[in-house]
Specification:
The chain is an alpha/beta fold. The chain has helices at 6-24, 32-40, 44-47, 63-76, 91-100, 122-125, 144-147, 150-160, 277-293, 297-304, 334-346, 360-363, 396-405, 443-459, and strands spanning 53-58, 81-83, 112-116, 133-136, 166-170, 185-190, 217-224, 227-232, 244-251, 256-263, 266-273, 314-319, 322-328, 351-356, 386-392, 413-416, 433-438. The longest helix has 19 residues, at 6-24.
Length: 460
């Protein structure tokens, strides 16, 4: 750590004042204090005294869920952790989180720290913050205008992750598992289950050719997109063997899963809050980190029993015999959105689907790029169980065109300019369930739709 400068100390005081003012105004002090600090002292993190042990989580999908799991379980076991679970995962938000738990002179108040770090922020974070453990959940296609292509993000991480970080990597992802080959690493993964329905009809596969020699890749199994176990037919590159491997799982009706894992210490059984196989990777990543970090099997097992499904991302309830499901689809993220579409087609009851994917948060600063919808598997919604699709928002006609290209009959599709009005187009007499696929920055419209649908179902 460099010797503190007057500029750093001044920025530290200004940041603390900003946090106090925002709290007085009952605002979340997320990115603004960090913006103030980094404007006054761009290399602020260079001088800040950091916690002794730092755990970082990055990756395209699942990093928020994994970070929250880690925070909940470590807290349950007596670890007091600095964290940025309020949502600021770029340099300004991370600076705010660290500043909140530091003294006026910039000394860390807590010994442990859990940080969710956006992949693109690697350039601005890792020169100053060297995580002791770094979890990478996966690297898949994301927003084009921010993340371009997945190999572009891989290169950013590969060049900036510190050599000293112990990596926790998904062995079933042939992209992220190749990060920082000389770093200490521990792999997690899942076997292919006998009753599992693999998603092999998706559009995107970013590892059709070997990333080392460009020869064809053969998949032992492909769970979705490029996630699975594979090997190169020429150079011998293959998915690494997992250190922590889920070998069986059984889902319950309350959104949990009973899993059995092979670990370096033998077979271990857990009950985790998870509603589908895809999300089991998040739990697997969390367990791998916690056991590698030093928590005992009993500590992790007992703490996981207390965790619950994150209600802001997935909810399912039955009202007067009608099923109502809300599933976060993450607009501009084709892989995450495809997951939501796939989950929607899996149940057999008749369904009306509401789609609200316009990203108004992003549209405030940039023009929207809709190329991502042509990498999204809207074909999954071309299913006999879906009798009506209601699309809301200013881009509704664009989504309709994409769905028509995907083979969905036009008579099933209805467009609506205002997301909030989509609920009024639902005919409960013609459906057994309503699925709402919503964008993560559009909770306002989602809440209005939810209140209206619940009122309609209660009065039906």
């Amino acid at each position: 750590m460099a010797k503190k400068t007057l500029r750093f100390l001044f920025a530290c005081v200004c940041g603390k004042i900003t946090i106090k003012l925002l709290r007085l105004l009952k605002k979340n002090a997320t990115n603004l204090p960090g913006s103030v600090v980094l404007t006054l002292c761009p290399d602020f993190l260079k001088y800040l005294e950091l916690p002794e042990k730092i755990i970082a989580v990055t990756g395209t999908n699942g990093k928020t869920t994994v970070s929250n799991m880690l925070l909940d379980i470590l807290t349950d076991n007596g670890y007091d952790c600095t964290n940025n679970n309020f949502g600021g995962n770029v340099d300004t938000g991370i600076t705010t989180a660290l500043l909140k738990d530091s003294t006026l002179s910039g000394k860390a108040k807590k010994k442990y720290c859990i940080l969710e770090i956006d992949e693109r922020s690697a350039l601005r974070i890792y020169p100053y913050i060297h995580p002791d453990y770094l979890v990478c959940t996966n690297l898949t296609r994301d927003s084009y205008k921010r993340n371009a292509h997945v190999e572009y993000i891989f290169d950013i991480l590969n060049k900036n992750i510190p050599d000293s970080s112990h990596l926790i990597l998904d062995c079933d992802d042939l992209i992220s598992c190749r990060l920082k080959k000389n770093n200490k690493r521990t792999y997690f993964g899942m076997e292919c289950f006998d009753d599992e329905v693999l998603i092999t009809d998706n559009i995107v596969n970013d590892v059709a050719a070997c990333p080392e020699c460009n020869s064809p890749v053969e998949y032992d199994f492909r769970r979705y997109h490029h996630i699975g176990r594979a090997h190169c037919t020429k150079c011998g590159l293959e998915s690494p063997a997992p250190d922590f491997d889920i070998v069986s799982r059984e889902f319950t009706d309350d959104g949990h899963a009973h899993i059995t894992m092979n670990t370096p210490d033998g077979e271990e059984k857990y009950t985790v809050a998870c509603e589908n196989t895809i999300n089991l990777y998040n739990a697997c990543a969390a367990i791998t980190l916690l056991r590698t970090f030093g928590l005992s099997y009993e500590q992790v097992k007992n703490s996981f029993m207390k965790t619950a499904v994150v209600k802001s991302r997935f909810t399912s309830e039955t009202i007067n015999g009608k099923k109502l499901v809300f599933n976060l689809a993450k607009g501009q993220n084709p892989v995450a959105c495809s997951h939501a579409c796939n989950l929607t087609r899996q149940s057999n009851e008749t369904k009306t689907v509401i789609v609200i994917l316009d990203d108004y948060y992003d549209a405030k600063t940039t023009s929207e790029n809709i190329a991502w919808i042509y990498d999204t598997d809207f074909e999954f919604l071309n299913n006999d169980s879906i009798n009506k699709i209601i699309i809301g928002g200013k881009r509704s006609v664009d989504y309709k065109l994409r769905m028509l290209i995907g083979g969905i009959p036009e008579e099933k599709i209805v467009c609506c300019d205002r997301e909030e009005d989509t609920a009024e187009l639902v005919d409960l007499s013609q459906t057994e369930s309503v699925y709402v696929l919503f964008e993560m920055y559009n909770f306002r419209a989602k809440d209005v739709i939810e209140a209206k649908l619940k009122e309609m179902m209660e009065n039906a």
